[in-house]
């Protein structure tokens, strides 16, 4: 079973087609794979988690969450579809990475114009706090990777109690504040050059007070770390009994920014 694919991408069409293959190989059901306005689109689901991933131009693509599948409907008219927003822009002949973890599918691509990696993901919430229904995340990190301020314009979506809610009310991944980044600053450890996978917390922004955030769970299979300058992009790293793939969060290379990403790979 393929858990990740890393290489060079030329178009958004290629990225969507490769993503479809990876998703299908990892237990997702493909409801539709065709073209929309001449560009590739795929509708996929696992259980009640439905998503559309589609190219919107030769170099741009979007990811939206849905509540079901309707044959013949365009991506934004699928049942309960979230607001469409370009997830990022593919730069021809630059790197991309498609990753499947337990509970999540992630798309990473290198944006030459901004000189950093951008990430999109569709996943179910881990360690969910409370009794509310569902808990499915649809996010992207374009413009400000994993920074709360990037999720006030609909870039992050949360499926909660049977409906998709944009982040203007639901919050997003916390990357600019909190002790998780402080912990990353202490890596790699001076004693053994080791790194520690730190969970990425999902926060809900309170509708009554947008300055307050409530932590509600973790992104599945995706963690923070600081690889320093001792690892390379897409290197497989053993941490305890598990194997992780290390990727830049937003820097061009591992260790360039204050934090990197670890994806837990399957057996």
Give me the count of strands: 17
> What's the arrangement of strands in the largest beta sheet?
1-7-8-9-10-11-12
Structural class of the helices, strands and pairings?
A: mainly beta
Give the low-confidence spans: 143-154, 168-172, 174-180
Mean pLDDT: 80
Short recap of the structure:
This protein is mainly β and 267 residues long. The protein is built from three helices and 17 strands.
Word description of this protein:
This protein is mostly beta strands and 267 residues long. The chain has one domain. 9% of the residues lie in helices and 46% in strands. A 7-stranded antiparallel beta sheet has the order 1-7-8-9-10-11-12. It has a 5-stranded antiparallel beta sheet with strand order 2-3-4-5-6, covered by helices on one side. Strands 13-14-17-16-15 form a 5-stranded antiparallel beta sheet.
Could you give the topology of this structure?
Layout (H helix, E strand, L loop, with lengths): L3 E6 L2 H14 L3 E8 L2 E8 L2 E7 L4 E7 L19 E4 L4 E8 L2 E8 L4 E9 L9 E7 L16 E4 L2 E4 H4 L8 H6 L13 E9 L2 E17 L9 E5 L2 E7 L11 E5 L3
Antiparallel strand pairs: 1-7, 2-3, 3-4, 4-5, 5-6, 7-8, 8-9, 9-10, 10-11, 11-12, 13-14, 14-17, 15-16, 16-17
